[in-house]
Amino acid sequence: MKLDRWLAVVVTLMCVVWFAPSAWAAEKIVKVFILAGQSNMEGKGKAVHLDTYKDDPLIKPWYAKVRSGNGNEWVVRNDVFITYPMLKGGKHGPLTVGYGSTGDDSIGPEYGFGLVAGEAYDEPVLIIKTAWGGKSIYEPFRSPSAMPTDAEFQKMVADMQAQHDKAIENNKAKEAKGEKTNPPKPVPTVADLKKSFGEYYRKMVEHVKEELGSFETKFPQLKGYKPQIAGFVWHQGFNDIIRADLKETKYADYTKWLALLIKDLRKDVNAPDMPVVIGELSTGGIPNRGDFQVAQANVAKIAEFKGTVVFVPTAEYYDTVAQEYFDKGLWKGTEEEQAKWRTIGADRPYHYLGSGKTFFLKGVAFGKAIVELDKNKK
Questions:
Q1: What is the distance between the alpha carbons of residues 199 and 48, in angstroms, rounded to a whole number?
Q2: 229 beta partners
Q3: Are 318 and 291 contacting, i.e. CB atoms less than 8 angstroms apart?
Q4: Residue partners of 59: CB distance under 8 A and separation at least 6
Q5: Residue 267: what pLDDT?
Q6: By percentage, how much of the chain surpasses pLDDT 90?
Q7: CA angle, 209 as apex, 314 and 274 as ends, to 5°?
Q8: DSSP states along 62-98
Q9: Rounded CA gap, 341 and 354, in Å?
């Protein structure tokens, strides 16, 4: 009997260990999203524009979530965190207004995005924002698999040398006529080009890894949480759409390079099935859609990306009223006209007129798309 009782105790203990509640060993997860691109991912919108549009059908459902009860302060989310290492030498905190690039009252897509993600997940959310103005995928954002060959680099140098020599000759002719001249820029070496090509792709990866390694220090609330990369949002393209050589081929290389960037980034951040949203470059709104937007959308149509990469249109959110004000010159008019302009606009058309409405709604669209991809992930 003693042996029987001993065996019973052993079996019971084994069962307790085997069938222990999953909560005992469950990992605490923080959902991580990477937001990357150039100036329009940096964010040029003003949050106050949401006040102007608070009754707009697209803004109204969100307005109560961004304004505090007294209507004078912007809500601070305690379940969504953001780190933007290149803003003011590094800025991080709970999600609120001020993570755009034009001051403490500015917003980019991160604001609407973070609200959507915060509402969608029980887990806390961490946004890592990596964006720099004026950066193309042709050069600074070129990923390792898309890098030019040595022969291509050598041809680039040769072409630039020929242009340099031609500029010297032109300057000589101008000087002979007594005209002013500007010296041409020095011709880079192959080594120089290899350093500049992919420089900001490498910085993006570096920042993501650094933030993943330091988030517990920056956000003590997340100590003990395991980061789970749940998505990547790419909003970029202005410096590529204006390249004549890319335009000639209807931006086919942009499609190729962005596809390679996605594959390289998945490998470099160890997230092979990372959901990806490609945000439409939509400066000028719907009338400006063309070959470039098709090239962006074509990335999501690549067979191996099915179900993990989506193209999200945003031209519908372009602020046509702000464009009307801009075209009328209110931004440089009388004090009264400028005040009227500031209620909905803050910048030039290539920055979506600085419309807080536009930047916010783009973020909402990106958030909804990435959450759907993540939750439907196999």
A1: 35
A2: 32
A3: no
A4: 50, 53, 357, 360, 361
A5: 98
A6: 86
A7: 45
A8: HHHHHB-TTSSSB---SSEEEEETTSTT-EEEES-S-
A9: 11
pLDDT at 34: 98
Q: Are residues 139 and 196 in contact, defined by beta-carbon separation less than 8 angstroms?
A: yes
Render pLDDT for 342-376 as a digit per residue (tens, 0 to 9).
999 999 999 999 999 999 999 999 999 999 999 99
Q: Which amino acid is at 189?
A: T
Of 237, 236, 303, 234, nearest to 262 by C-alpha is 234
CA distances from 277 to 9, 130, 144, 288, 290 (A): 55, 15, 21, 21, 19
Distance CA 323, CA 113 (A): 24
Rounded to an integer, what distance in angstroms lies between the CA atom of residue 66 and that of residue 62? 7
pLDDT class for 68, splitting at 50, 70, 90? confident
What distance in Å separates the CA atoms of residue 370 and residue 366, rounded to the nearest whole number? Answer: 6
Distance of CA 59 to the CA centre of its chain: 21
Q: Of 84, 82, 117, which Cα lies nearest the Cα of 96?
A: 82
In order of 14, 15, 19, 20, 39, the CA distances from 5 in angstroms are 14, 15, 21, 22, 72
- Which residue in the block uniquely carries the two structure tokens 């604001």? 111
Q: How far is the C-alpha of 262 from the C-alpha of 31, rounded, in Å?
A: 19
Distance between CA 274 and CA 160 in Å, rounded? Answer: 39
CA angle 114, 285, 294 (to 5 degrees): 90
Q: Are 296 and 284 in contact (CB under 8 A)?
A: no
